[in-house]
Amino acid sequence: MFNIVRPLLSPISPLYPPPLNFDFSHRTNYSDPNGNTRTWESAERSTRPAGSLIDGVGILAILSKETGPELLLQKQFRPPVNKVCIEVPAGLVDDGESPEVCALRELKEETGFIGEIVQDGTGVSPLMFNDPGFCNTNLNMVHVTIDMTRPENISPKPELEENEFIEVFTVPLRNLYSECKRLEQEGYAIDARVGTLAEGLEVARKWML
User: Fold this and answer.
1) Which of 111, 118, 171, 204 has the fewest beta carbons under 10 Å from its own?
2) What are the angstrom distances between the C-alpha of 124 and each of 37, 141, 143?
3) CA–CA distance from 139 to each of 34, 45, 142, 197 (Å)?
4) What is the SS3 assignment for 176?
5) At residue 61, what are phi and psi to the nearest 5 degrees?
6) Residue 144's Cα: distance from chain center in Å?
7) Which residues contact 182 (CB under 8 A, 6 or more apart)?
8) Each residue of 66-114: pLDDT tens digit?
9) pLDDT for 163-209, tens place per residue?
10) Contact 90, 56 (CB under 8 A)
């Protein structure tokens, strides 16, 4: 486990030429509902494999425990917000990968856990766009269960790349909303996927769905 400490950022500067992962040069002209011509500037992720409909996956991994289900989360420093973020495991698809294969691979690499795709029809979410007002990046959320009786999951060993510094932890699913509030007060940034899941659970509880 790593001690995630927020480093000091150097002054931010523009990138010329544009980096390999994103193309920031898109300018789209379109007509609004009133017939007016308008311009929209945006970015486009350039890492999507040819023939793939998605850039990557987010992984909603649930550990089954006697005390109740727990959600697998990560702490990872993100320079654009200059904070350690609370995130679900996630990653980009490789050429020819399905969302399910990508999710199980990334889960093993980032957390060490061996997971199983949920087979009740909710294993892969509809296609989601991360920030459609800014870029075309998209993903599927993949629902995974982690069997804690498997020997490989007793002492999982991540296979991180040399530039990855990730701390893995779990939160009781029933406490996710309050935990997000607590972590935010401690100075962490809450990733939208985690926050949206917490909000959904809270809405379902409030309206007794």
Assistant:
1) 204
2) 38, 6, 6
3) 32, 12, 9, 15
4) helix
5) -105, 125
6) 14
7) none
8) 999 999 999 999 999 999 999 999 999 999 999 999 999 999 999 999 9
9) 999 999 999 999 999 999 999 999 999 999 999 999 999 999 999 99
10) yes
- Name the token pair of 103: 């999710």
C-alpha 42/C-alpha 28 separation (Å) is 8
* Alpha carbon distance, N-terminus to C-terminus of the chain: 37
d(CA 60, CA 30): 36
How far apart are alpha carbons 111 and 153 in whole angstroms? Answer: 10
List of residues 6+ apart from 197 with CB closer than 8 A: 60, 71, 176
Lowest mean pLDDT among 1-5, 17-21, 102-106, 167-171: 1-5
Query: Is the predicted pLDDT of residue 1 greater than 50, yes or no?
Result: no
Residue 110 φ/ψ, nearest 5 degrees: -85, -30
